[in-house]
Specification:
Layout (H helix, E strand, L loop, with lengths): L3 E2 H4 L6 H15 L10 E5 L5 E8 L10 E8 L9 H13 L6 E5 L2 E5 L4 E2 L8 H15 L11 H15 L2 H6 L2 H15 L6 E4 L8 E3 L6 E3 L6 E4 H11 L23
Antiparallel strand pairs: 1-2, 2-3, 3-4, 4-6, 5-6, 7-9, 8-11, 9-10
């Protein structure tokens, strides 16, 4: 990946002065890093689907060429507010950061934020099918579902599906609406809600997007970290587990990232 100086990152941000101010505030809080922001090295990170993500390597005052501080800069993508509420996502991230879950929030600017850089590897599509890794994810997801998050414990799934369907109809041509059978999806959502809603279903705080790119593993300790909470909300935990199983059929780094291979869907546990 190309390493660039700080000036190369600024054009990606609509509020460069705001970003600089937040970085300067963070640097003064640390007290052991150089003040010249132009000496920061910026590494674009691949894999993010809704944002631009960068690793910043920040030289220390006594580190010579060694880079002792790392920060992750997340610049929010355009148009993604159609899929989730950005204000709710920021509140969720702040709450989880406050309680020590996931990366720490280091600062915010108008169209992005600074996060703790996690020294771990993002999973690949194949990693999800390794039974030992799947066990670790299951344990971490159980913790996620038991988080005591603020707000009403209302199921958001069905409302969100209807909202996405409404937006899809606005954006698609008549041909595309017919090709993707959008006119029939409203009735399908109603049918699924009626059949799947039960009084005894367990409701918990769900990630709702547990694809391999949102799971990181520390290969020294095997610690799992779940990241990116844009779609997180209260939902039936059975839905969250099923959605994760569906993600095992996806490979977003292939020539056909939108096509799911359901032969890869997990079978009964051996």
């Amino acid at each position: 990946m190309a390493i660039k100086k700080m000036t190369s990152l600024i054009p990606s941000c609509s509020s460069p002065e705001d970003l600089k101010r937040v970085l300067q505030t963070l640097g003064s809080t640390w007290g052991d890093v150089v003040e010249d922001l132009e000496s920061l090295e910026v590494v674009p990170l691949k894999g993010a689907m809704t944002n631009e993500v960068y690793q910043i390597n920040w030289p220390t005052l006594n580190g010579q060429d060694a880079l002792h501080r790392k920060v992750l800069v997340r610049i929010y993508g355009d148009g993604v507010d159609l899929f989730f509420n950005r204000d709710d996502e920021i509140k969720t991230f702040e709450c989880m950061s406050h309680h020590g879950y996931g990366p720490k929030l280091l600062g915010r600017f108008s169209d992005g934020r600074l996060e703790e850089f996690i020294h771990a590897r993002t999973l690949s599509a194949g990693d999800l099918r390794v039974s030992e890794t799947s066990d670790l994810i299951a344990a971490k997801l159980r913790e996620f579902h038991e988080l005591d998050m603020p707000g009403p414990r209302n199921v958001l799934l069905w409302e969100r599906l209807r909202t996405w369907l409404k937006e899809a109809k606005k954006l698609c041509s008549p041909t595309e609406i017919g090709e993707f059978r959008l006119e029939a999806m409203g009735d399908e959502i109603n049918m699924l809600e009626e059949r799947l809603t039960r009084d005894d279903q367990e409701i918990g705080f769900c990630h709702n997007d547990l694809q391999y790119g949102n799971v990181m593993i520390d290969e020294e300790t095997n610690a799992i970290t779940i990241i990116d909470y844009e779609y997180s909300s209260f939902n039936p935990i059975a839905y969250d587990i099923t959605n994760h199983f569906c993600e095992m059929a996806a490979n977003y780094h292939s020539d056909t990232p939108h096509v799911l291979d359901y032969t890869l869907y997990p079978g009964p546990y051996p």
